[in-house]
Amino acid sequence: MKLLSVNAGRLTAVEYTDSASGLTGVDKRPVDGPVRVFAPGPTGVAGSGVEGDSVSDLRFHGGNDRAVTAFAREDLDDWERELGRPLANGGFGENLTTTGLDVNGALIGERWRVGSEGVVLEVTGGRIPCRTFQGHVGVPGWVRRFTRAGAPGALLRVIEPGPVQAGDPVEIVHRPDHDITVALLFRAATVERTLLPRTLVAAEWMESGLLATAREYAAKYAS
């Protein structure tokens, strides 16, 4: 299990973003050399936890709960075959492109140690697709298609900051005692909301927006 690339993006003006600024940082490219990852600050206020990376719409991106995003190269390869075109590392707007790691099967609260400097990341949820992502990929109906696939990639908080770089090994150092994976939480938040109350066993580690959705649904439909 290792990082194939660390990816960062600069803000650019586009027509297809939901951000009020008209800017997006979704176009992320591999960065040479070590890149510092850190806890950026409160969700909804702070930006990316990857040095040199920019995010625009802080309602849905950035902050401590969503400091870093990861996507498996294996899933990018599947989409290459389906879309019939090459997808570079970072092509889905992810900060970390991994190989050998079951990103979507990761448990909420699972911790990864990355590299030799003791960087520790914690899984908090899965990436929810939006109109900006659809515009970046350039495929009509992309949000629905990506959602149906059920392999969103992971959102991560930074527990121990430090530098990471391409080629760094990734080790799973903690798995919590529940069965809520990135894929299951994503399915619950998008297409099968009756699963949301079940996901609350992972509330301690969950990204705040997904946690609010789960709690709201559970309260509304509590018997």
How would you explain this protein's 3D organization?
By secondary structure, this protein is α+β, with helices and mostly antiparallel strands. 23% of the residues lie in helices and 23% in strands. The chain is built from six helices and twelve strands. It has helices spanning 73-83, 131-137, 142-149, 182-190, 196-199, 208-220; strands at 2-8, 12-13, 23-24, 29-30, 35-37, 68-72, 96-99, 111-114, 119-126, 154-160, 162-164, 170-174. The chain has an eight-stranded mixed beta sheet with strand order 4-1-7-6-10-9-8-12. Strands 2-3 form a two-stranded antiparallel sheet. Strand 6, helix 1 and strand 7 form a beta-alpha-beta unit. The longest helix has 13 residues, at 208-220. The N and C termini lie far apart (44 Å). The model has no long low-confidence stretch (mean pLDDT 93).
Which terms summarize this structure?
223 residues, alpha+beta, eight-stranded mixed β-sheet, two-stranded antiparallel ribbon, 6 helices, 23% helix, globular
Question: Short summary of the structure?
Answer:
The chain is of the alpha+beta class and 223 residues long.
Write the layout of secondary structure elements.
Blueprint: E1 2-8, E2 12-13, E3 23-24, E4 29-30, E5 35-37, E6 68-72, H1 73-83, E7 96-99, E8 111-114, E9 119-126, H2 131-137, H3 142-149, E10 154-160, E11 162-164, E12 170-174, H4 182-190, H5 196-199, H6 208-220
Parallel strand pairs: 6-7
Antiparallel strand pairs: 1-4, 1-7, 2-3, 5-11, 6-10, 8-9, 8-12, 9-10
Strand content: 15-25%
Note the run of SSEs as H and E. EEEEEEHEEEHHEEEHHH
- The order of strands across the largest sheet is 4-1-7-6-10-9-8-12
How confident overall, as mean pLDDT? 93
Rg estimate, integer Å: 16 Å
Total number of beta strands: 12
| Structural class computed from helices and strand pairing | alpha+beta
* Uncertain residue ranges: none
Shape: globular
Helix content: 10-25%
The number of helical segments is: 6
